[in-house]
């Protein structure tokens, strides 16, 4: 079972404690039978692209095969893409 739309990392108007960390997400995924999730970082979608993308990359590194990542870009900073 693959969750094709998930987010990682906290954001001020989305407070779900366990989903703030990759470890917490894996714990919940195991309980509900999700094998892997395709994730993007909430912080990346809300202005802090580097931090949000780093959360996704770390989740993929720490839990290989459990997370597949979407990277966010900000077209206002083409040199960072």
Estimated radius of gyration = 13 Å
How many individual helices?
3
Order of helices and strands: EHEHHE
Overall pLDDT metric? 89
Looking across the biggest beta sheet, what order are the strands in?
Answer: 1-2-3
Based on CA inertia axes, which overall geometry fits?
Answer: globular
Spatial gap, N to C terminus? 32 Å
| Record field, number of beta strands | 3
Largest sheet: 3 strands, parallel
Low-confidence stretches: none
Helix/strand/pairing category: alpha/beta
Helix content: 25-40%
- Sheet-strand content, in percent, reads 15-25%
Architecture blueprint of SSEs:
Blueprint: E1 2-8, H1 22-32, E2 36-41, H2 42-45, H3 49-62, E3 67-69
Parallel strand pairs: 1-2, 2-3
Give structural notes.
By secondary structure, the protein is of the alpha/beta class. 36% of the residues lie in helices and 20% in strands. It contains 3 helices and 3 strands, in the order βαβααβ. The protein has helices spanning 22-32, 42-45, 49-62; strands at residues 2-8, 36-41, 67-69. A 3-stranded parallel sheet has the order 1-2-3. The termini are far apart. The model has no long low-confidence stretch (mean pLDDT 89).
Quick recap of the structure?
With 81 residues, this protein is an alpha/beta fold.
Throw out a few tags for this protein.
20% strand, globular, single chain, 81 residues, alpha/beta
């Amino acid at each position: 079972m693959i969750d094709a739309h998930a987010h990682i990392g906290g954001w001020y108007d989305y407070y779900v404690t366990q989903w703030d960390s990759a470890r917490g997400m894996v714990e919940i995924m195991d309980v509900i039978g999700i094998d892997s999730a395709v994730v993007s970082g909430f912080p990346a979608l809300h202005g802090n692209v580097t931090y949000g993308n780093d959360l996704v990359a770390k989740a993929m590194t720490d839990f290989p095969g459990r997370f597949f990542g979407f990277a966010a870009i900000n077209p206002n900073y083409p040199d960072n893409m």
